[in-house]
Every structure is written in C-alpha cells, then in structure tokens.
Design goal:
This protein has 127 residues and is mainly α. The chain has 5 helices and no strands. Helix 2 runs antiparallel to helix 3 (55-67) and helix 3 packs antiparallel against helix 4. The longest helix has 28 residues, at 22-49. The two termini are 26 Å apart.
Length: 127
C-alpha cells in the first residue's frame, strides 16, 4: 500500500513538471497506475504458476502489457522493473547474469516484442 501511495505521488509530481495539458497529464498518471497493475498481475501470475523457467516470460509479459497503455504505462514498467532488479542484485544475490537476462526480457516486452519469445514449453495456457 505504501508503494502505491508513493507511486501515485511521484506520478503527480512528474505530471506537474511536464509541459503538457491537464488531460494529457491525467492520462499519463492513469496509464502509469494501470501499468503498475499490469506489472503486479504478471508478478502474481508468476508466483501462482510457480513454473521453472517462466521468469523471463512473466517479466516480458508484464512490461508488454504495461507499455501498451502508453507512455505512463511504459514509465511505470521501467521504474518497477529497474527497482526490482536493483533489489534483486543487491539483496537476493542472484547474480549479474540473471539481472542482465531479466532486464533484456523487460526491454523486449516494453518495446512491443511478443512475450511468447520467452514462454517455456508446457506453461499452462491460462498464462
């Protein structure tokens, strides 16, 4: 909850510093919130699936879904992905190679690439 409040406040500050109109700024914030939901949904699905080798697919899918919303969604996907990878490399000790591969999947999804490129064989079609 605290993250959502901080995210919303940061979005409003970002909007306030932009040279765009009220409607465009509001759209950016709306898309950013939707993008954050998309990222959370991909994370939740990844945890639920608990499928070996599916990590990169869910990274790409969350970023893809968020970026489809527009600049606000793409921004949210980048901020969330970078924060997660920073935490992962600092705290979890999973290593630079895993972080690099995750970021590659994140960029692929954000740039509109098909997340199925990273889909492992046998992952249930629900995902």
């Amino acid at each position: 909850m605290r993250f959502c409040v901080c995210f919303l406040l940061f979005s409003i500050v970002l909007y306030g510093s932009a040279d765009s109109g009220l409607v465009e700024g509001g759209r950016f914030v709306w898309d950013a919130l939707g993008g954050a939901r998309d990222m959370y949904r991909a994370y939740r699905d990844m945890r639920e699936a608990n499928y070996k080798g599916a990590d990169k697919y869910f990274h790409a899918r969350g970023n893809y879904d968020a970026a489809k919303r527009g600049p606000g969604g793409a921004w949210a996907a980048r901020v969330i992905s970078d924060a997660r990878e920073k935490w992962q490399s600092d705290v979890s000790g999973r290593g630079a190679e895993d972080t690099r591969a995750d970021q590659e999947a994140n960029r692929w999804g954000r740039s509109g690439g098909d997340p199925n490129r990273y889909r492992p064989a046998g992952l249930p079609s629900k995902y």
